[in-house]
Amino acid sequence: MNASIFEFSHYKTYLNEKIKSMPSKGRGQKLKMAEFLNCQNTYISQVLNTETNFTLEQGSKLNTFFDHSKEESRYFLLLIHLERAGSEDLKTFYKNEIDELIIKNSDLKKRTNVKASLKIVDQEIYYSSWIYSAVHILVTIKEFQSAGAISRKLNLSKDKILDVLEFLTSTGLVAKTGNTYSIGVTRIHLSKDSPHIQRHHSNWRMKALQAIDVNEPGNLHFSNVVSISEKDIVKVREIFIKAIDEARKIVKDSPEEKLQSICVDFFEV
């Protein structure tokens, strides 16, 4: 199943979808679950299709059965807690716990496990302008591995590009062999709590606005204002997060040919 457990607000829906996604649509899976929980096969069907719920002890065993990660296990048990809660106050408590965990797992730093390698003083320079990250990534493309080629591509003076390349080389983000430049550290990533994240977003939103003015046919720009329920906000955000994850996987294995910017915004007005 490609869907993340964090996309589900009911553990029974999650389990039913997970079973269906297994080979042969999960035939025999309920029997294996019953054997693992030391219960009747009919009990599994009863829980998945009626108001009967698994106990927390059974939920803990199912975490082992499905090989859930630590965060997935916690989320799964919270969903069971929510279904078993006997009062609205208790349901609200578990809903808040669930929402906090969803937000926590929306942090791309935790999903990608990428760590910044720059010193704080170097981060301030790198994220001061879009030029540094543009040049940094441009050198991964063979035809843009010289200062002259980069200067012409970005329509900036060669002296400016040489200054940027000197900085990138000194930090190890770019390597230099003769007059040819290549990538050093492959990726760096800013967490949502970084003091430089606002500048980084602003730098590339400004470039996006310039791209909108040029209006190249191959570019994609989407803007829309909607009204939506609170629970569906979580679902839509998770869709975007998943799409970003999938895009990053494609980019990782894609040959370096074009320099593209990816900007995604989904926020409350």
TrEMBL record:
A Pfam family this chain is assigned to: DUF4423
Taxonomy, superkingdom: Bacteria
Domain DUF4423 span(s) in chain numbering: 113-269
Protein name: DUF4423 domain-containing protein
Organism: Bacteriovorax antarcticus
